[in-house]
Amino acid sequence: MSEHFSRREFLQATPVVAGALALSAGVAKAMPAAEPCGGEDTAATANRRSQTGATARGPFRGTLCFFSKPVPQLSWPELAESAKRAGFGGIDLTVRAGGHVLPERVGTDLPQAVAAIRSAGLEVPMITTELLSADDPAAEPILSVASKLSIPFLKPGYYHYKFVNVLAELEEAGRRFRGLVELAGKHGVQVGYHNHDGYMGAPTWDMARVIEPLDSRWCGYYFDLSQATTEGGVGGWKIAANLVMPRLKMIAAKDFVWKPASQHRWEAENCPLGQGMSHWREFVQTLSQSDFHGPITIHEEYSIPGVSDSEGIALSREKAPEVMAAAKTDLDYLKSLIREAYSAG
User: 308: which of 7, 170, 203, 324 lies 20 to 30 Å off by Cα?
Assistant: First the structure.
């Protein structure tokens, strides 16, 4: 077998995880450039300029978004005004059970929510959903309305392993995901799959087998550096970042630290951005050498004693301003990294 085999051949031939690390160097060498995905801020043409010493291609033109999950108590206008005061350029709006827009009301509520946010001068470049297949009764309405509102990106839900036969389970999830992407493409909406611990796609390599053969215009990755670091340790996040970069759609920004849970056992605990173990400075430097200009969303998912719960959700409406103040701190840190990286060279 030649060392210079194609990216698609590798992903189809390799088991879900085993052997991935050993072969990653050959994959990087053989990686072809992807076609543009279209849209206002897509990144399928992102390449490996970091490997050739290229300087930043700034300025960064993507939207820095606030993920609306932590403040469900706020109305759409309140959410928009709070995010604007904090310095955000857009909202990553939850369109799911318990979210700011309920799936069963998407036809009436999503246009109103987007209108309220845009009237405050902010963008809605993406929505976060729980969609898993085209057969979901909510899939067609959500995608149709998102298309009419010119919302370019969508985060789907998560697939679970049953740990009976992970290859078969991945294939079944892939069948459902392919159908969802096909439907999204018909509506001109791009799907970015989020790598998250506890679900398929946590190590990135498994869902890559599903994603890579699909049309890059409508399907790619919603990359989470914190989750990639949790899963990959010292160098795994670099491999994952290298893998997703040509088809990077969106980025989730959060951080974590390892905390002892019991004897011989540690657990990841989310923390403010820049105070944890994720290599954000290095990652943003790499990002600045690519063509990525998609949305970056602040995920404020850490507990603030007396203010927010373990998932970062405000304990009450009265606590929402304190949650937003913490989000502003995270955003300011991210902005400082972007200024530093994109002004280099």
Answer: 203
Q: Could you say which DSSP state residue 195 is in?
A: P
For 324, half-sphere exposure in the C-beta direction (CA atoms, 13 angstrom radius) is 23
C-beta atoms surrounding 259 within 10 Å: 10
Q: What is the mean pLDDT of residues 192-208?
A: 96
pTM: 0.84
pLDDT at 94 (0 to 100): 98
Separation between Cα atoms, residue 334 and residue 265, nearest integer Å: 31
HEC string of 132-171 equals: CCCCCCCHHHHHHHHHHCCCCEEECCCCCCCCCCHHHHHH
Per DSSP, 80 falls in state: H
Which of 3-12, 37-46, 72-81, 121-130 shows the lowest mean pLDDT across its residues?
Answer: 37-46
Closest Cα to residue 286, out of 62, 61, 63, 49? 49
Residue 65 is predicted with a pLDDT of 98
Q: Which domains does the chain have, with CATH numbers?
A: 37-342 (3.20.20.150)
Q: In this model, does residue 120 exceed pLDDT 50?
A: yes
Q: What's the whole-number mean pLDDT along residues 262-287?
A: 95
Interstrand relation of 255-262 and 265-271 (parallel, antiparallel or unpaired)? antiparallel
Helix residue ranges per DSSP H, the chain:
7-13, 20-30, 76-86, 106-119, 139-148, 166-186, 205-211, 225-244, 280-288, 320-342
How far is residue 203's CA from residue 199's CA, in Å, rounded to a whole number?
9
Please report which helix (H) or strand (E) contains residue 219, including its range. Answer: strand 219-224
pLDDT value for 55: 58
SS3 239: helix
